[in-house]
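Project standup — Tuesday

K.O.: blocked on the structure for the chain from last sprint. Re-posting the sequence here as requested.
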Amino acid sequence: MKKIIAILLCLVMITITACGNSSNDDTSKESNQEKEINEGNEESNENEDLEVDKGLLNVTITLPASMFEGEDIDKEMEEIKEEGIKDVKVNDDGSMTVKMTKTKHKELVKEVKDTVLEYFEELKASEDTPSINDVKYDDNFKEVTLEVDKKKFEESFDSMAVFGVAMTTAMYHIYEGVPAEEVNFKINAKDSDTGEIFNTILYPDDLEDME
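H.V.: unblocked you, prediction finished:
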């Protein structure tokens, strides 16, 4: 399970970057030739998304070939099988299709959720993010709120933690079966002393402003 979660985490990092690039492309003025090139790249990015197909009894996940560049894909496949998922196939295009029972998928979703919660706990406890006092969230991570010391938060690099929150939260939504291009949620920064929400980031719309 941990192997698949690691792969998913890498995938979400690529997805976040792709979304940011796509937003920048939409707002810039380009020549017709540049537009054709960018449209081709966007189609390629869409094809590189992780796909989750929930059937009646099983869940099928297709991991894009880009996740295995420079890796021994046969070794990756064997490691996934060792985690109890036997139906693993490498496709002609280099992608990998993993089929599991709904029970196994439910277990994996729980592990992904636990990974997100562990990250939130680390933000609260880490000496690297001293301005973050608490992290609140709803059941499905549609809204995440960082309760912070506003002055310290704005004057330090702690605000970069928003990237990690976006990455891990997007990972959860994608693995739940939401298409990457449809994932959306919001991240609030809230002053612990006053209760004021002084910043809200809408994923993915505001992502380019975070970069």
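K.O.: great, moving the ticket to review. The longest strand covers residues 185-191. The two ends are 31 Å apart (CA to CA).
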